[in-house]
Amino acid sequence: MERFIELANGIIDPDLKEKTIRMIQNPLPTNPDWRHSGLEFRKSPASTNMHHCYSGGLIEHTISVVKISSAIADVLASVHNADINKDVVLAGALLHDIMKPMTYEERENGYDASDGAKILDHIILATVELYRRDFPISVVHIVAAHHGKGSTVRPLTLEALAVHLADTLDAELNNSIMEGAKRISNARLKELGCNTGQEALRKLFDNISPYKIVMTRQKDGRDAVRKLVKEALDVSGD
Ligand SMILES: [Fe+2]
Ligand SMILES: [Fe+2]
Which of 31, 81, 119, 177 lies most in the core, judged by the most C-beta atoms within 10 Å? Predict the structure, then answer.
């Protein structure tokens, strides 16, 4: 989580910075009736079967949302002269999916929703927790509205719009990369005599980032991908 703390240190307002860092270090819901500890943040996927659905996917996604929303805020400020609060964007982006790990469980063949998630989803959990911890309402709104039309409230501030668009864009980017990595890997898995189903791919992406597979194919070719897959799955096929 050091990377998150480093990013949170970019928040200028001392009170918001302190609250954000405290939330990153201890995100567990403060309601004593909540009993689902979920996964560790650093190991958590960002979804069970869609974007970033592999170990470490949530960290990748959150860092990307921080960077993309910050770039959108810069465009709004420098090109359109918008008065946009970058502290609020940064805190909202860092915390937008902070409760996702509480809503997952690891199963033998992948990730699934925990019992807790069936009662309260990650947006409700984070929204009530940020409200309870006295975060500025502008930050609570970002978290509540970050799924856009899929949220109970739509993004109604530039800061919330920046985080919502960054969230959507990064999920789309990852879906495209995963599609490419699946195609590239399936061919090599077949050559190595391995299974090519969903479970085999999840195991592969838990060990190698799909971005690395796509970049290796583009830069170094098929044989380099084959070597990468072979090492990641520890198979001896030739
Ligand atoms: Fe989300
Ligand atoms: Fe997200």
Answer: 177
Q: How many helices (H) and strands (E) does the chain have?
A: 11, 2
Find the ligand nearest to 51 CA.
Answer: 2
| Bridge partner residues of 110 (DSSP) | 107
At 93, list the tokens: 């982006």
Closest C-alpha among 111, 139, 117 to residue 23? 139
Give 8's strand partners: none
Q: How far apart are CA 88 and CA 140, in angstroms?
A: 10
Q: 11 by DSSP, 3-state: which?
A: coil
What string of H, E and C letters represents the secondary structure of 161-230? Answer: HHHHHHHHHHHHHHHHHHHHHHHHHHHHHHHCCCCCCHHHHHHHHHHCCHHHHHHHHHHHCHHHHHHHHH
Ligand found nearest the CA of 65: 2
Determine the distance separating the centroid of ligand 1 and the alpha carbon of 208, expressed in angstroms: 24
Is the whole model's pTM more than 0.70, yes or no? yes
182/194 Cα distance (integer angstroms): 14
Residue 113 β-bridge partners: 104
Per-residue pLDDT tens digits for 13-30:
999 999 999 999 999 999
